[in-house]
Write a structure and sequence with these properties.
The chain is built from 2 helices and 9 strands, in the order E-E-E-E-E-E-H-E-E-E-H. By secondary structure, the chain is α+β, with helices and mostly antiparallel strands. It folds into 2 domains: 30 residues, no CATH class; 121 residues, no CATH class. The termini are far apart. The model has no long low-confidence stretch (mean pLDDT 88).
């Protein structure tokens, strides 16, 4: 990703919601939402991974200022497992709206097999054992979690302990 002011390459550490250009000192926010249900902000920089669902090239993005990879085709999200846990904890704690009515688990999703963008092996497909009744894909070897579009928002608004 390049600086919008001077064109110099930017590096983002993924831990703060801003990027500061080391050449011209301009600042870019990475926590503004793009209007997606999951509040993803694409950062106009290709990642090194392909989407495990639709095979498009993923782009670096931010969710609440944390670094993720996002598919602009199917709107899925690839996220490190420890960041996924942080997002779930923080979003559920901050949520102040009406809780959504539970949607039954879609057992057909358990039959879908996707390859991990990291190691290229089949990801484990399983129900997420927290709120939201979703099926997630995870890779224990790489520490990655794949979320389909809308799954993070379903976790956020699901009824249950916050």
């Amino acid at each position: 990703m390049d600086c919008h002011n001077c064109g110099a390459p930017l590096n983002w550490d993924g831990s703060r919601p801003i990027i500061v250009c080391e050449f011209c000192s301009s600042i870019r926010s990475v926590d503004a939402t793009s209007g997606s249900a999951d509040r993803i902000s694409p950062l106009d920089h290709p990642s090194d991974s392909d989407c495990p669902r639709c095979r498009q090239h993923l782009v670096v993005a931010a969710m609440d200022g944390l670094k993720v990879e996002h598919c602009e085709g199917c709107h899925g999200v690839l996220i490190q497992r420890h960041l996924f846990a942080m997002l779930v904890r923080d979003r559920r704690a901050d949520f102040r709206g009406a809780e959504a009515r539970p949607i039954p688990l879609d057992f057909d999703q358990l039959k879908l097999i996707v390859d991990c963008p990291g190691c290229k092996q089949a990801m484990e497909v399983h129900p997420y054992y927290g709120p939201g009744n979703i099926v997630i894909d995870s890779c224990s070897d790489c520490g990655l979690v794949w979320l389909d579009s809308g799954e993070m928002s379903r976790i956020e608004v699901a009824p249950g302990r916050r």
